[in-house]
Amino acid sequence: MMFAAPPVIGNNSPSFLLGKEGQNIELWCSATGSPEPQLTWLKDGNEVLSSEDIIVDGNKIRLNNLKREDGGAYQCVFKNVVGQASHTIKLIIKGYVYIMEKPRNITVQDGNEAKFICHADNEFHNSTFKWYKDNVDVQLVPGLGTLRSSILSDGTLIIRNVIKSDSAWFECEAKNEISTSAKAKAFLNVTYLPVVLTSDMTVLLPRNMPGLLSCPFDANPPVTSVVWTKNEQEIKFLDYTRVYKRNLSDLAFRTVRESDEGAYSCTPYSALGASKYSPRFQVHIRDPPYFKERPKRYYQKQVGDTISIPCEATGDPTPTIKWQKQNGQLDPEKKLIEDSRLVITYLSMDDSGYYECEASNEVATIVTTTLLIVEVSSPHRARNISIKTTENTANVKWLPAFDSDYAKRQDYFIWYREIEKNTKQNWTTIAVPDDYTSLLVENLKSDTRYEFVILSRNSLGNGLFSERHLVKTKGSKRHITKTEVYPSAAIAIPPPGPRPDSPRNLTIKNLGDTLEIRWLPPRNLTVPVQYYIVYFRTVGKFDDLSGPINNGTSFEWKGFSRGAKYRFKVFRRVLHSISLNFKQ
């Protein structure tokens, strides 16, 4: 008959072994038991497996070429169905200190004592110890130090009357007389009853609006439930009721009524029990703000204008009005609040956007939104025009027109024509170079009356013509032929000749924010092309869109309005005439 017996340790290596770096050493263990026990080798709690310099062979371990990391606590653990037995062998490599029993993570309730074990050894058995809390010497931590902590000679750390702020990583450092050290750390988790993070208070809830009472708390372990009372009677919650719990802790009202006035309190519970303190909320019902006058849904203004946007609210207590711009800031130099109205002066494109009027009192906050659209327009007419003439020239000067499309380039065109005996000739047009506000018109006839006007243009189109100016050149007996001036120079032209053929294959392509206008040159090029001009219209007369195009057969327009219908045509101009037929 066979009897079962637990493992019993037999012959084994001494409990303390001393080795040198580079040396070879062997550890062994034996045990008896029925059935025969199974052996597992551990080092510092982890199973030892064979490697290049470590050979595990049954009840023996051979360590070749000893290194510092080979030192530590080895265990041979024998197990069978009846039980288990183990033996610990401390291997010390000369010159080093080793933590043989490392501290473990612990959980302690506040007010109790926490104890961390840290046993270390070296060849002289004279290890010294230091402890750190989050990398700060425990003895130097305010409120902890020697007042509530002690380090025993064997390395054990004791913390008395633990508090919430003691929760942290603690690290043990063991040293020997030649200043080598070993370190190990563990976490202290301090548990405590739930604590409500607010005190008694008066709360105003908005009449006929949703309301909320919050019960903020701190707890470890987490809160599992919160009990609410009204006038010292527990509130029972049913599905789909007007008063309900939200997010475990909050008491919510779908619609606040007069009957909701009273004294409320909240008590959170965790696995450790209930909060020791429950604050009292004295609830009163008041009128929330409501708008007596709201802004319009949107406003449209021009650059440079001033706008006044109304917003008026009432309530109990009387609400305050605050204006703000979504995704931006109001310019304090341009913004003015007059009796809750928002006034913005000298509007620019940057003022476009959504604006919020916020009315708030102690009960609630309400917000209404409006959109401000600041539009650009074609430029105003040029002003303060002066013209000085000689026999064959006119020096034209002016001041720039106001341009709401301020971020774009503004162009000017001088139009002039000869006036003889009340007969008006065709207009001649000169494109003024960029950034010029004066131009010398040359090759005029002497002793002749001329009419001048200036046209302003930006990316949105033509502005208004300036006032008409009539001048006369100085007298001379010389004869000057009729001239036409181009953007940078005046060119004398002969009397009109045959008209050129018109451009071909006019196409328009929508590129999103740009219209691409293209055409082909005339088939008959015996009459050289001087330049092209693109005209457009929505209704009414065609208007000059491009100005002279000297190079190429295309034009890009970015100032169009989405959704509008346009008609386009292209003229071909030669040195002395313009195409009669145009492509449209």
TrEMBL record:
Pfam families given in the database record: fn3, I-set, Ig_2, Ig_3
Main subcellular localisation: membrane
Signal peptide segment: none
Localization per Swiss-Prot or TrEMBL: Cell membrane; Membrane
Xref: InterPro entries: FN3_dom (IPR003961), FN3_sf (IPR036116), Ig-like_dom (IPR007110), Ig-like_dom_sf (IPR036179), Ig-like_fold (IPR013783), Ig_I-set (IPR013098), Ig_sub (IPR003599), Ig_sub2 (IPR003598)
Enzyme class: hydrolase
Family under the similarity heading: Belongs to the protein-tyrosine phosphatase family. Receptor class 2A subfamily.
Protein name per Swiss-Prot or TrEMBL: protein-tyrosine-phosphatase
